[in-house]
Amino acid sequence: MINYFNTILDGIMNSRRIIAKENAEKDYRTILALHPTLKESVKQKKALELFIARATALKKPCEAEEKKLDELNKNISDYVKANNIVFSVKYNCPICKDSGYVNQKPCKCLLEEYGKLLKQNMSLTPLPEFYFKDNTFAKSNVPQAAGMNKLYKILEQVADKFYSTKLQNFLFSGASGIGKTCLAHAFANQLVSKNISVLYLSSFELVNIFLDKHTNKQTALRKIYNYVQECEMLIIDNLGVEPIYKNVTIEYLMSTIEKRLGEGKKTMICTQLDGHALINRYGEALLSKFADKKYSLSVGYINGEDLRKL
Ligand SMILES: [Zn+2]
Hints:
By secondary structure, the protein is an alpha/beta fold. About 55% of the residues lie in helices and about 10% in strands. Bound molecules: zinc ion.
């Protein structure tokens, strides 16, 4: 679990505890209303406790009251047992009592809320429900079928071994419409189904986030900037069609990629540009980050049929 959603998760758990406590108090008052004898005993008990506390503070004797309190407590306990009265707090999650943790490990209920947040935050507009199982390249005859099918298999493995694979940077370059975006959607959906934090952005959306950060605009996009840096997998789709803003596009892109690489986070770029065009547009540095085989998987230009035209 990454820390990015901690405040929200704390808020959810906190409000659950408050609700559980309020409900318990309501139940308690209902029980007392149904059992006037008990209500009276509780009233006496509170009065005695107050008396004893005051007497103790003033160092006055109160043995008689203490004895009376013991008797009263026993009577209350006998009454509760005899009438099968159960005082209990009904937590939303009885396993962790709405604390979110069991033995310092996240409880199932917390992971569920975390998963919901990951899904809500995985993209700016909801992604199509497209998964690896929906890949049809294995049975297809289009020229890119073999290449794309292989990529699906590789990314499925990356999703399975997300935390153990050394691969951090992924670059997929290929003609427009060959199926890169669907692949990116399937990958993002797969990761989020495994509670891995992933952010899918078009290059255009990404540059707008950078621009709002650069100009310090307090917009919703500006807020996502931190998630761009912190999510475990950043997917930048269609790099190369976004506008180049001076001091923003290339500078923020490079610093984001470098920072993420340094922190062991993964970044994926899908682009219609080939190696030369990428160098021309972004400089050698970008490509070199995706060329080192120790931590990168780069797939050279894939040609094929434009699936959107089929
Ligand atoms: Zn729980």
